[in-house]
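Thread: quick sanity check before group meeting

JM: Hey all, I'm pulling together slides for Thursday and realized we never actually wrote out the predicted structure for the chain we discussed last week. Dropping the sequence here so it's in one place. If anyone has concerns about the input, flag it before I start.
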Amino acid sequence: MVTLSGEGIFLRALEPEDLDFLYRLENDETVWEVSETQAPYSRYLLRQYLENSHKDIYEIKQLRLAISDYSLHLLGFIDLFDFCPKNRRAGVGIVVFEKAQRSRGIGSEALRLLTDYAFTRLGVHQLYANITADNTASIRLFTRQGFEKVGVKKDWIFSEGEFRDEVLYQKIGG
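JM (edit): ok, ran it. Output follows.
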């Protein structure tokens, strides 16, 4: 049986109460390079996003879930994006907010839960992740979950005055 609940965390739908965390994340310039964000998001726009987050992944081609512990603390977000039902694939993105929470298995458990859900419930055949070549923590997370390096996009990301490579990781499943 596939579930979005693990031993230490569970994945849940977004709630209106997540606005402050979403606002903090979407306006954190350190993650803009991977999301291709160029300008801050207003609370108004993010509130509208949350109001529409209930829409079906087949309609909006994205599913963002909150990563929560059983004390109901929001720990991060995990996404399926660029969902393509015809080709049965989707991209995966993950962020765990606090550095103190990282390296504790939260990301690994969340990625495992989402991967199982995507392969079993959504019938996805493959998942992929785009990771900057210098992001060793993310590379370790995804490779430990069975994602394989399948290519390098040279000088793909322009950030802080220099070009950086982005590595494509893929997991073939269901």
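AS: nice. The helical segments are 19-26, 32-35, 43-52, 57-60, 106-120, 136-144. The two ends are 15 Å apart (CA to CA).
JM: adding both to the slides.
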